[in-house]
Amino acid sequence: MAAHDAQHSTPVSTGTEGVKRGMAEQLKGGVIMDVVTPEQAKIAEDAGAVAVMALERVPADIRAQGGIARMSDPDMVEGIIGAVSIPVMAKARIGHFVEAQVLQSLGVDYIDESEVLTPADEAHHIAKSAFTVPFVCGATDLGEALRRISEGAAMIRSKGEAGTGNVVEAVRHMRAIRAGIRHLGTLDETELFVAAKELRAPHDLVVEVARRGELPVVLFTAGGIATPADAAMMMQLGAQGVFVGSGIFKSGDPAQRAAAIVQATTFHDDPDVVAKVSRGLGEAMVGINVATLPDSERYATRGW
Amino acid sequence: MRENPAVPVIGVLALQGDVREHLAALRAQGAEAVTVRRPAELARIDGLVVPGGESTTMAKLAARFELLEPLRAAIAGGLPAYGSCAGMIMLADRLLDAPADQVTVGGLDVTVRRNAFGRQVDSFESEVALDGIAGGPLHAVFIRAPWVEEAGPEVRVLGRVVGGPADGKIVAVRQGHLVATSFHPELTGDRRVHALFVDIVREHLAQQAGAVAGNERGKS
């Protein structure tokens, strides 16, 4: 955070790394909920969501209906922005920089360059640093997280396997990212050069993570979280907050489940609270056994 | 009364938000910093920080876990408090641009406008000079920040935005033991706002100790 001589330069600067990463810091300990209508956005806000993710279809429906999944209709995004006072995020396809330009122009607060949508580029992610709006990206391991950060992502989430209601992949990815960070901490200066090569990540970022013992940006979890206990487990595994996609609005009582997941996230280390809020929630989303998913239907393998 | 007023115990409201950054900033100023999520945890603190975060979420969780009334009682009883961004909203007596049902802890006789500077694309960094803080302007990070629209007669304006579209807007205030900033000193390395607040807590403790000592002498 330099710019102590700001009297001699621009007095007010937007789109800085400080405000992009700092925005994610404000979301910590909170739950970000997928919504497809302004009405759902209002339910999420009333339940205590720290932000909503505007999208056209929740991942479970994308799985069920197939076809190409794209950025939401601008009218829908605007409707959701108008319905709530909490931050509104929206998804762009991997590599689809024009969808990102459009979402920035609509005034969304964060863009999720998301594997849940159909990728638009099978080699390149969006060059995110140039945008004023910040980006969150998914990752399955430390190398992928660091590649996204080097492209300008200001927040990382585990990918998990969205739309399954099955937390197993989120656990796998969160453990992989955290184990990767711990491993870097055991390496000496010489070994970090090789680690950067193996992680396919910039050496300076690898050194920074080894030194700090954590990512330089906030780390959330996503992909398959369906119950308060799922959210609390992911927090105990080291997530700094939770994205819930299909888990809320594909369940029996969305308002109550949403509030319960918010409370379980805050009190993730207090089993009495998690037990209390887990009662009487009605049916959770049905869910899919990830092991039976063919590779072509696994979203976590999208992104490079 | 505390055994060692030089090391005040300061709680950070830990329902949601950038709690860890405030804990670190307070510890760097020599305070013992602890998290507060339950009413019982208010009993042992000498000061309270309400962090940055999402104010609607904090308000709902505070109400749900029966913290709201104990927080109001503690602040009405003189507990020093500092709020950054969402914390400023939580300490405000009156809100603008908030959902109709959004509650606050209150205590500061101000009207605060939520998301006053605009959306995230309008979030910015700038320099803000604060009345009572020496060493030149602070580097300030504003994230979907509120500002103080109106301040009551007991409220001292500590700082205003200089330049840009919101030139002159009030972004730092103090009323007795209560301090609030629109921006996030916990996100920068500049610890002067936290130092000011820890000093307020120490002075408050010393005054309380003096009052207790006076009562003790009166009895003997």
Automatic annotation (TrEMBL), chain A:
Which PROSITE patterns does the record associate with it? PDXS_SNZ_1, PDXS_SNZ_2
Please state the Enzyme Commission number of this protein. 4.3.3.6
Which Pfam families does the annotation name?
SOR_SNZ (PF01680)
Gene Ontology molecular function terms on file: pyridoxal 5'-phosphate synthase (glutamine hydrolysing) activity
Q: Which positions does UniProt annotate for D-glyceraldehyde 3-phosphate binding?
A: 175
GO biological processes: amino acid metabolic process; pyridoxal phosphate biosynthetic process; pyridoxine biosynthetic process
Chemical reaction(s) catalysed: aldehydo-D-ribose 5-phosphate + D-glyceraldehyde 3-phosphate + L-glutamine = pyridoxal 5'-phosphate + L-glutamate + phosphate + 3 H2O + H(+)
Q: Which UniProt keywords apply?
A: Lyase, Pyridoxal phosphate, Schiff base
InterPro entries associated with the record:
Aldolase_TIM, PdxS/SNZ, PdxS/SNZ_N, RibuloseP-bd_barrel
Q: Where does D-ribose 5-phosphate bind?
A: 34, 163, 224, 245-246
SUPFAM superfamilies assigned to the protein according to its UniProt record, in alphabetical order: Ribulose-phoshate binding barrel
Domain PdxS/SNZ N-terminal residues, every copy = 18-222
Q: What class of enzyme is it?
A: lyase
Relate the protein's function as given in its record: Catalyzes the formation of pyridoxal 5'-phosphate from ribose 5-phosphate (RBP), glyceraldehyde 3-phosphate (G3P) and ammonia. The ammonia is provided by the PdxT subunit. Can also use ribulose 5-phosphate and dihydroxyacetone phosphate as substrates, resulting from enzyme-catalyzed isomerization of RBP and G3P, respectively.
What the record says about family reads: Belongs to the PdxS/SNZ family.
Protein name listed in UniProt: Pyridoxal 5'-phosphate synthase subunit PdxS
From TrEMBL, chain B:
The record's active-site residues are 85, 184, 186
Q: What is its EC number?
A: 4.3.3.6, 3.5.1.2
Q: Which GO terms describe its molecular function?
A: glutaminase activity; pyridoxal 5'-phosphate synthase (glutamine hydrolysing) activity
Q: Which domain of life is it from?
A: Bacteria
Q: Some GO term, biological process aspect, for this entry: which one?
A: pyridoxine metabolic process
Quick one: a GO cellular component term?
A: cytosol
| Reactions it catalyzes | aldehydo-D-ribose 5-phosphate + D-glyceraldehyde 3-phosphate + L-glutamine = pyridoxal 5'-phosphate + L-glutamate + phosphate + 3 H2O + H(+); L-glutamine + H2O = L-glutamate + NH4(+)
Cite the PANTHER family for this sequence. Answer: PYRIDOXAL 5'-PHOSPHATE SYNTHASE SUBUNIT SNO, PYRIDOXAL 5'-PHOSPHATE SYNTHASE SUBUNIT SNO1-RELATED
NCBIfam families in UniProt: PLP_synth_Pdx2
The name of this protein is: Pyridoxal 5'-phosphate synthase subunit PdxT
The upper taxonomy is: Bacteria, Bacillati, Actinomycetota, Actinomycetes, Geodermatophilales
